[in-house]
Amino acid sequence: MRVRDLPQDHRNAADYDRYRTFAQSCLTLALSAKDQPTRAMFLAMAQTWNSLADRNISASSRVEPAPAAGQPRP
Fold first, then answer.
1. C-alpha distances in angstroms, 71 versus 61, 66, 67?
2. Smaller CB count within 10 Å for the chain: N or C?
């Protein structure tokens, strides 16, 4: 199953996890960087991925859940 095949609320959670994983990878790369400019670049990338994860989870909390089967939307 691919992420795009998941319902929207599960897709947001999967994206959140992926973004956090990307951020962690960038932090790991920053620790092994040989020079300050490369380290700074990876730290900035990690910060960006973490920001995207935070925005993604915030957006998913604003999504109105679908009504239960047979229930009308309010």
1. 21, 9, 6
2. C
Tell me the backbone φ, ψ of residue 68, rounded to 5 degrees. -65, 155
For the chain, the C-alpha Rg in angstroms (whole number) is 17
Q: What is the pLDDT of residue 13?
A: 74
pTM metric for this prediction:
0.65
8: its two tokens: 């929207």
Contact 53/20 with Cβ under 8 angstroms? yes
Q: What is the pLDDT of residues 10-67, one digit of tens each?
A: 456 788 889 999 999 999 999 999 999 999 999 999 999 999 988 887 665 544 455 5
